[in-house]
Amino acid sequence: MAENREPVSPLAAIRDKERALAQAIRAAQERAEARVAHARARADAIKTQAERDGVREAEALYQDGLARARAEASALQARGEADAAALREAGRARIQAAVEHIVRFVLPQSH
């Protein structure tokens, strides 16, 4: 059986080609838009994770600094207490000499 085909006019062929190209362009645009949307979503997720990581790191640095400050304050307090104890001991050792000096001043010995 032989097919009866009418010859395609050049204008109809151009219109068909234009329609096919327009569909291909729309499909490419849709794929590009989908890629852009995916990239934006991924960028948002990365940004959110980076913010969480930054907060976590900042908190760790804060806690580390706080621990160091507490340790330094504790060391200063211990040194201060040790210095105070040493001064108390030095004062106690001098009390006897001070009492003897006062007694000699108040009660001069005759020679």
Could you explain the architecture of this structure?
0% of the residues are buried. By secondary structure, the chain is mostly helical. Helix content is 87%, strand content 0%. It has a domain at 11-83. It is rod-shaped, with a radius of gyration of 47 Å.
Write down the overall geometry.
rod-shaped
Structural class: mainly alpha
Q: Which strand-content bin applies to the residues?
A: under 5%
Unreliable stretches: none
DSSP helical segment count: 1
Mean pLDDT: 91
Q: What is the straight-line distance between the termini?
A: 161 Å
Any idea what the radius of gyration is? Answer: 47 Å
Element string (H = helix, E = strand): H
Helical content stands at: over 70%
List how many beta strands DSSP finds.
0
Explain the layout of strands and helices.
Elements: H1 10-106
Summarize the structure.
The protein is built from one helix and no strands.
